[in-house]
Amino acid sequence: MGRYIAPSELPLNEDGSVFHLHLKKGQLADKVILVGDPARVNMVASFFDKGSIECDVQSREFHTITGKYNGERVSCVSHGIGTDNIDIVLTELDALVNVDFETREVCDTLKSLTIVRVGTSGGMQDFCPIGSYVVSKRSIGFDGVLNYYSGENVCDLDFEDKFCKHVGYSARYARPYVISADEKLVEQIGYDMIKGVTISAPGFYAPQGRWVRLQPQDPELNAKIRTFDYNGEKITNYEMESSAVAGLSRLLGHRAMTVCCIIAGRTSGDMNTEYHGTMEKLVETVLQRLMK
What we know:
The chain is of the alpha/beta class. The chain contains 7 helices and 13 strands.
């Protein structure tokens, strides 16, 4: 017998759905688009084949629509903001396909999902201007989520050490981790896009170097980040989820990556809040390439 997973460890609702996502067995496709905004799920689903919607489930910030694109099954799931939400979403998506809810044991045969997060981001380099698309080939997690799981061998420890030394990383911050996205998926989706290193921050303001009324602990951190170079790799952008998406997926045996539309120029100081048309083009591109 396998390890019994107690109800307190993996809660299920009375209808048999997983606790936060409210999805039941069979409602999730093997290919998944992740987005932050619950309303954006409707936009993604607008590209699905007419009349193909199988389920439309929403609970809190978690909204899921499963349907078909060009005849192939796909789900779009919203995760809200932050890697703490990714911890919930990835764990429950994995449980839906790899845990037997009757016996509460891990299934004998494991399934691998293909997961692409499509989001927005702030560009850290001049070659990542507003309106460009950046694929997170690697991510640096400032959030610390992956450090709570065993399996640090999936991280690039040398990259982490050199980054910490270059920027004078404060011991008061969570230890950063460096994780790679699925290489084949990166090439499949983002072959003609900017590929770089993305920082996932645990907040939008000071954790990304923004200064409104409260001063960041290190006001020069972003300047040091921009000049960091690891064997030709530069940090291209800030967002808040890619590290946990890549890290948890790798530990769980799923294929995952993140691609973002740049809506803030962190070097120029510019911001585009009317980015919806650009996002729609990115979503359509991702669907076309994912569902080939």
